[in-house]
Design a protein that fits this description.
By secondary structure, this protein is of the alpha/beta class. The protein has three domains: 257 residues, 3-Layer(aba) Sandwich (Rossmann fold), CATH 3.40.50; 220 residues, Nucleotidyltransferase, domain 5 (2-Layer Sandwich); 59 residues, Taq DNA Polymerase, Chain T, domain 4 (Up-down Bundle), CATH 1.20.1060.10. Helix content is 46%, strand content 11%. It has 24 helices and 15 strands. The strands form three sheets. A seven-stranded mixed β-sheet has the order 7-8-11-10-9-12-13. A six-stranded mixed β-sheet has the order 3-2-1-4-5-6, sandwiched between helices. Strand 5 and strand 6 form a beta hairpin.
Length: 605
């Protein structure tokens, strides 16, 4: 059976806005993006997990027929935050870039559009999944329609079918949920219902009498205190049900084939994501065909360009190394980067070094791969060491401290650092993402290869030295190339925030100082530390013995359950004001302090 995914655009945007509000996500220009990001996370997650054939997104378009029926409808809701409207417009841009249909209907809410389309899709033999943050849509659940809703955490998702609805609502069917709304109302929408009837009573009445009409037909059987409320508020009950009912006959034009997911424009999505600085989501987009031509240059072995438009040259022999040294010596600025086996520079083994001296070209020197033709570290050190150590050759790196640590450990200390693109980015945009891939995407629009494409992740993750040279070379060369390209943009950014002088006179001069400090480390007096450990262990043992004497038995004080039993059962300390857990009162130093009499408290506790 074909599958249609329908998304409640406003409900999901609203849910994402408040769920991710504390992240403070914004672009470098200050545009808030947390609601858009949350929406995109949900959209990509649904596309990956559900693999739908069709998709559409519905949005609200203003006041509806419900406002005409009941002027106080949603009147108690706070006005939508100012920055939410702009984010909804961005969400629409994302949806359009994905080639997904947008559905609206004047005078109706998005729920009504979703309900109507779901009904029509069911009649065409199409299974529907409604994605929303609004539980009102549970009334639409049927054998052909399910609802996916975000959980307590926005990233959590749960699918409701008729059985799950019955489980959640103690046996009620989806059709009965609108009758429940008639009885108990909905404070979030300012639907009055019957005052004094809560969820337990409403559920009990509907399980017994099936519908709102059934409740009123058997009103004489309802207990007195609820009967009077129901009698007095009959009109409110039926009006509330109609306000809460999602209509399924909206005059909306629904063309199933127009909702087929066949108009995906990756470049358009990438452009929107670049504007929003959503680099972390790029790896979740379906890959585009890589088109590129290979330009042949003498002396160097070349690979085809990867996603970043960088011509890559692998330096494997003495002739190529000598030619590269000459190129570096004549360069106005040298960008360098290292590939290693660890994120800890003091523990890492050098796998390769990459350079760039002009945009669009990168060089990779493999020295520590497990397999493949490569130069010895000694040969590279002899050839490149003088260039790297020359303070008159200006150099740039992204997170230079790491690369300079690694190269110094390999016998190639670096002098002449004039720029660090990571520091420049941090000074320009302290709250943004500062990794090279994220900065290259947001600043240059270049989607770089993530390192996990090479070394994997989780239990199957390997190290860079185990990855073939031909695969690492384009990745490493692009790192150096993009670093070089970011320098002028970083300069502009620093000038804009008036931090260029700080960068030059404070930040860059500190880099070699930090490198020296990290490599030197600090001295530890191991004998003194061992003595401290012995003394502390003795003191702890003495205190544990005292505690055992007071309690009358040995107890593991690191076990909350044993300590709780000892304090509140063995010593019978009062539990008033003590937080309860599934296993009983929670033992803590505060509980002991607040519940012990001075004469009974163990000394030193």
């Amino acid at each position: 059976m074909s599958k249609l995914v329908l998304i409640d655009g406003h409900a999901l945007a609203y849910r994402a806005y408040f769920a991710l509000q504390q992240t403070g996500m914004a672009t470098r220009q200050g545009e808030p993006t947390h609601a858009v990001y949350g929406f995109c996370l949900m959209l990509l997650g649904v596309l990956e997990e559900e693999q739908p054939d069709y998709m559409a997104v519905a949005f609200d378009v203003g006041e509806t027929f419900r406002h005409q029926q009941y002027h106080a409808y949603k009147a108690t809701r706070e006005k939508a935050p100012e920055d939410l409207h702009a984010q909804v417009e961005r969400i629409k841009q994302v949806v359009q870039a994905f080639g997904v249909q947008i559905l609206t209907a004047e005078g109706y809410e998005a729920d009504d559009v979703l309900g109507t389309v779901a009904r029509q899709a069911g009649e065409q033999g199409v299974e529907t999944l409604i994605v929303t943050g609004d539980r009102d849509t549970f009334q639409l659940v049927s054998p052909s329609t399910k609802v996916l809703i975000s959980g307590r955490k926005f990233s959590d998702r749960e699918v409701y079918d008729p059985a799950r609805v019955a489980e959640r609502y103690d046996g009620l069917t989806p059709e009965q949920l609108v009758d429940m709304k008639g009885l108990m109302g909905d404070s979030s929408d300012n639907i009055p219902g019957v005052k004094g009837i809560g969820i337990k009573t409403a559920t009990k009445l509907l399980l017994k009498y099936d519908t709102l009409e059934g409740v009123y037909r058997h009103l004489e059987q309802v207990s007195g205190r609820y009967r009077s409320k129901l009698e007095e508020q009959r009109e409110s009950a039926f009006m509330s049900r109609e306000l809460g009912r999602i209509v399924t006959d909206v005059p909306v034009e629904f063309d199933l084939q127009a909702c087929r997911l066949s108009n995906y424009d990756r470049d358009a999505v990438s452009a929107v994501f670049q504007t929003l600085e959503f680099h972390s989501l790029m790896s979740r987009l379906p890959a585009a065909q890589d088109e590129g031509t290979v330009k042949q240059l003498s002396m160097f072995e070349q690979t085809a360009p990867e996603a970043p438009p960088t011509h890559t040259f692998i330096v494997r022999d003495d002739a190529a190394l000598s030619a590269l040294v000459q190129t570096l010596q004549g360069a106005a600025l040298i960008a360098f980067d290292t590939e290693t086996t660890s994120t800890d520079p003091m523990q890492a083994n050098l796998v390769g070094i990459s350079f760039a001296v002009e945009e669009g070209t990168g060089y990779y020197i493999p020295v520590g791969h497990a397999e493949g033709k490569q130069l010895s570290l000694m040969a590279v050190r002899e050839a490149l060491g003088p260039v790297l150590a020359d303070p008159e050759c200006p150099k740039v790196a992204h997170n230079a401290v790491y690369d300079m640590d690694v190269l110094a450990e390999a016998g190639m200390p670096v002098e002449g650092l004039s720029w660090d693109t990571l520091i420049a980015e941090w000074l320009t945009s302290p709250t943004g993402q500062h990794g090279l891939k994220a900065v290259a995407f947001s600043r240059l629009g270049v989607e770089m290869t993530p390192i996990t494409d090479l070394i994997g992740s989780g239990a199957r993750q390997t190290t860079m030295d185990r990855v073939p040279i031909a695969r690492v070379a384009p990745y490493a060369a692009a790192d150096a190339d993009m670093t070089l390209r970011l320098v002028p943009l970083g300069r502009q950014g620093l000038e804009r925030v008036e931090a260029l002088e700080l960068f030059k006179t404070v930040e860059i001069p500190l880099v070699p100082v930090i490198v020296a400090m990290e490599r030197r480390g600090i001295k530890l007096d191991k004998d003194t530390l061992a003595q401290m450990e012995e003394e502390l262990t003795a003191r702890l043992s003495k205190l544990e013995a005292q505690i055992a004497d007071y309690i009358g038995a040995s107890v593991n004080i690191n076990s909350p359950q044993q300590l709780s039993e000892a304090l509140f059962e063995g010593l019978a300390l009062p539990t008033e004001g003590v937080r309860k857990t599934k296993t009983g009162p929670k033992a803590s130093h505060t509980a002991v302090r607040d519940n012990c009499l001075p004469s009974t408290c163990p000394t030193g506790i």
